[in-house]
């Protein structure tokens, strides 16, 4: 058996394990939430986001499904309600690239629910499929995947409910954005070291890194800039999300016990959704599992500032 075949066999075995884990209900002694707890899932009218919303609602939380397009969002809510009676799901329009849309959404959350307990930053875009590696829409990709996640998070943190269980922020990311991955990593060793060192990592460094990339895209010099070579713009956006996850976790760790917020990112894998042209090897039901698990895991078991795939911690 070749190494590639062995890797495929391990992956298929792990997917079977994830499918089994999803069938095991959370026991009463681990259940800290009720229908009074509110979860917001961005970009959740289809794909992984829709499945995360469905599973969280299935566990008994009140879930706010969001989408840029109102008709698409309302149709998604209707489809979930038709599939399963009794789900507490609401909808509100949200464009994470629009500051006014984020502000309006925050006001609505405060007026309607008072607080939220879980934020899943799922909204994202990718314009490359297969072997394509165009950077034509690099600014949109960075604006949506990284800046949208960051701006949405900053706006929602003041609204997160103080609790001994801790509020949760879960960022949907990708292995393609690993700083120190064996493949597809930054060529600049000094920059990799800075982004990997918690003492050197700052929001300014992350922003400057993506800004340098965008500037090189505009100048037409990005191919010689030492950026990731696969899905370059998408990889850079997720590298920034991963770095921001670690930075934010460090900042939030200074909060008191009653105001804890746990923040982690996870890679759902290569999923059969519109973003991959439906050629992925994992169904959305399994891909959503780690995000749901990170949203619900008990506080004494919870970690923060980590990167996960298939419920296992992996390196940034």
From TrEMBL:
Its EC number is 1.1.1.-. InterPro entries: CBR1-like (IPR045313), NAD(P)-bd_dom_sf (IPR036291), SDR_fam (IPR002347). SUPFAM superfamilies: NAD(P)-binding Rossmann-fold domains. Keywords: NADP, Oxidoreductase. Pfam families: adh_short (PF00106). PANTHER family: (+)-NEOMENTHOL DEHYDROGENASE (PTHR43490), SHORT-CHAIN DEHYDROGENASE_REDUCTASE (PTHR43490:SF70). Belongs to the short-chain dehydrogenases/reductases (SDR) family. This is Short-chain dehydrogenase/reductase. The gene is LOC104762305.
